[in-house]
Structure formats: C-alpha cells, structure tokens
Design brief:
This is Transcription factor-like protein. InterPro entries: ACT-like_dom_sf, AIG1-like. It comes from Corchorus olitorius. Keywords: DNA-binding. Helix content is 42%, strand content 25%. By secondary structure, it is of the alpha+beta class. The chain has two domains: 33 residues; 80 residues, Alpha-Beta Plaits. Strands 1-2-4-3 form a four-stranded antiparallel beta sheet, covered by helices on one side. Helix 2 packs antiparallel against helix 3.
C-alpha cells in the first residue's frame, strides 16, 4: 500500500471507532447507567452500595500509570479497608475503575478513604524511576 492508502484507511478506522464509542455512550445514557468508559476529566465518588450497605462503592477516572493500582491498594489499606471486587477499563492512557470496599467505619471511614484515594489518584507519574514530588 502507498502512504495515501494507509492514511485513508487509518482515518476511516478512527472515524469508525469514534462512532462506536459515541453509540456506546448513547446506549448507556438511555439505559440510565453511567458510562463504563473513562472520562476525560479526573473524578472520584464514593457512596454506600445500594444492594449491601456494608460495602462502599468507589468510582474514579484518571490518567493511567504503572503504579496506580499499587497506590490505590495502599490507600485502602491505610483506612483498614479491603477491596472485595474491582472493575477496571483502560483506554488511551485513561482509566475508569469501580471498587467495592468493605471494613470502613461510618462516614468518617468514607471521608478518610476519599482523602487517601484522592492523594493516590493525583500523584504524578513516575519518570525514570523517580516521582516528581517526594512521597
């Protein structure tokens, strides 16, 4: 194939993928569910699980980075919680995760977890094995 053909096919595939993502988002909105794809903006929300009030449902979107899962696990352990279920989607350098956490004590526990997760999510990517900020 010549360069023009490769470029044309690439553009065609990119448009098709954008169309599919748009259709998936529209289908999710129509069903009343939140989008399963990572958002463009960082966000973090916590609340009690509707089906089991002993679990806290944590939902967040952020930039993906190698050490993020480890940082999230450490954040949950600092508040003496444990992750009992996790769903994660990684697309284009972004991540959307839903975690179910047990072992938290009331609203104070949720507040502490939110602060710990916010710090983990906001931590900058490590470059050349070193973080831009001391940990």
């Amino acid at each position: 194939m010549d360069k023009a053909s490769v470029l044309g096919e690439t553009i065609k595939q990119a448009r098709e993928l954008k169309k599919r993502v748009k259709e998936m988002k529209a289908a999710r909105r129509g069903s009343g569910e939140r989008a399963a794809l990572p958002g463009e903006l960082d966000n973090l929300s916590l609340g009690y699980c509707e089906s089991d009030k002993s679990l806290v449902k944590v939902t967040f979107s952020c930039d993906d980075r190698t050490e993020l899962i480890s940082d999230i696990t450490k954040a949950v352990k600092t508040v003496k919680g444990s992750i009992v279920r996790a769903e994660m989607v990684f697309i284009g350098g972004r991540q959307r995760s839903v975690l179910w956490v047990k072992g938290l004590t009331g609203n104070e526990g949720i507040g502490m977890l939110k602060r710990a997760l916010k710090m983990a999510i906001d931590r900058p990517k490590i470059k050349n094995g070193k973080s831009r900020f001391p940990q």
